[in-house]
Specification:
The complex is a heterodimer of chains A (236) and B (303). Chain A is α/β, with parallel strands linked by helices. In chain A, helix 3 packs parallel to helix 6. A six-stranded mixed sheet of chain A has the order 6-7-8-3-9-10, with helices on both faces. Chain A has ten helices and ten strands. Chain A is globular and about 45 Å long. Chain A has two domains: 155 residues, 3-Layer(aba) Sandwich (Rossmann fold); 64 residues, no CATH class. With 303 residues, chain B is mainly alpha-helical. In chain B, helix 2 packs antiparallel against helix 3, helix 10 packs across helix 11 and helix 11 crosses helix 12. Classes of the chains: A alpha/beta (236), B mainly alpha (303). At the A-B interface, helix 2, helix 3 and helix 6 of A face helix 7 and helix 8 of B. Bound molecules: adenosine-5'-triphosphate and magnesium ion (MG).
Amino acid sequence: MLRIEKLSVHYGGIHALQGISLEVPEGKIVTLIGANGAGKSTTLKSIIGLVKPSSGSVTWNGKSLVGTQTKDIVESGIVLVPEGRRVFANLSVDENLSLGAYARSDKAETEADRRRVFKLFPRLEDRKKQKAGTLSGGEQQMLAVGRAIMTKPKLLMMDEPSLGLAPIVVKMIFDIIKEINAGGTTILLVEQNAKAALEAAHYGYVLETGRITLSGEGRQLLADDRVRKAYLGEAE
Amino acid sequence: MRHKDIMDLSTFLQQLTNAASLGSLYSLIAIGYTMVYGILRLINFAHGDVFMLGAYVAFYGVASFALPWWIAFIVAIGLTGLFGILLERIAYRPLRDSPRISLMISAIGASFLIENLGVVIFGGRPKSFPSIPLFDTVLNFGSVSVLSVSLFIPAFTLIILFALLFIVNRTKTGMAMRAVSTDVEAARLMAIDVNKVISFTFGIGSLLAALGGIMWSMKYPQLNPLMGIMPGLKCFIAAVIGGIGNIAGAVLGGFLLGFIEIMVAAFLPALTGYRDAFSFVLLILVLIVKPSGLLGKKQTVKV
Ligand SMILES: Nc1ncnc2c1ncn2[C@@H]1O[C@H](COP(=O)(O)OP(=O)(O)OP(=O)(O)O)[C@@H](O)[C@H]1O
Ligand SMILES: [Mg+2]
């Protein structure tokens, strides 16, 4: 279980997160939705140690993560599929997956995970010798998720996995998120595609300019007037 | 007429071995520039001075500690590798998150510091490297006679190059190096210890510079604390010509420079005085035609 309490982040003079608190219970899909610049990526980056919070706490199964190196956080079972995929363009698909398993020493299990990734995304197996930079946007997203699975995460965080993808690919990604979750992995999902995210999630938080303004079960938020107006583009 | 042709051919072959050995030396040094740039986007101005240190440590090993040459060389290469790692720790790591210009100034400062410490510690007067018979033998192939070191250098360089390409392309550490040079943040997300990878890169680059420095002093046995400046500058140019960040490019650039320099001196003796200028002319030409260098890739961003 991941717990964030009164987390604050500053970028120079910009107060990007203004004391947010949230929880991601084990085995659940939790989503964080919000407009551009709300602080969604910042939240994920401070969990994984890429951004240093100015105050507040992040605890993972009772252990504080603030000040811990990213490498150690990843080894403790948290991984981030970053915004914009960030696959290693000039490395092959296979090498990208191997990098996910960089810190692992359980060879047999690693190979089993690689087969699992290829089963989830057969297109990656067909292209495993290909440079990641030559993949389509959707395939790169699959690779980014596959690479994250290779770290053997207990908590998988994804930053806007549906960004820039065709509806059919978005649906596929969301199906796979549910499948990964059904396999026991906890998910923290950041999305601007609020409808798809809230439908998939057990629980959701709404982030507005650095503050959490609403939270509740996915379905409940989906039915909430404020959410419908602001994030689902529905008129009154 | 016949006779003259043969003469020219043998002169040419002789110059070719010279070009190959100078090109090899340039390549070894250029690789260090390119690897460090690839990973930190930093031009390590102190790299030429690391080359000088390698030569001096080997010199003291042989001349003062009377070590067998090969032990002295191995010790010098190892110590210089460690020095490179230390240099990064002290001069570059604390500035990792500072603006690029601070890093560059620190590199220039480190370079001046090493050169001046060199003058203080080693003395400003040139030292001559003791002759090592294995490298100092004149070999005759028909009408072509070459110094054995001129053959050893390219041979060594080839072996080292293959080893390096193997490390970078076929090992886990090499894969991490390529990942870090593509996207540091994403590499962190893969639980890669970025600091370790950077140290490793500096270690390898410095080790190669030391090897270059030692072999350089086999061929040109005059050592002085400023001896790294000009080769350093030229090898930086070689790395840029080849496409900075690209190892094969650094090698190509190194050989190209070595070749042009030797051939100009040999066949256009009137221009010998300008031999150092040729590297700059070549640099400008390449940058005009292909700004990313001969083997460099255009920076493409895929959204
Ligand atoms: N490295 C940075 N330096 C300065 N300001 C930053 C930095 N990163 C983010 N910010 C600012 O912090 C705020 C939150 O940014 P963040 O990237 O977390 O938003 P987001 O919710 O992920 O937005 P988007 O949906 O566009 O990805 C924004 O105002 C942004 O301009
Ligand atoms: Mg974002």
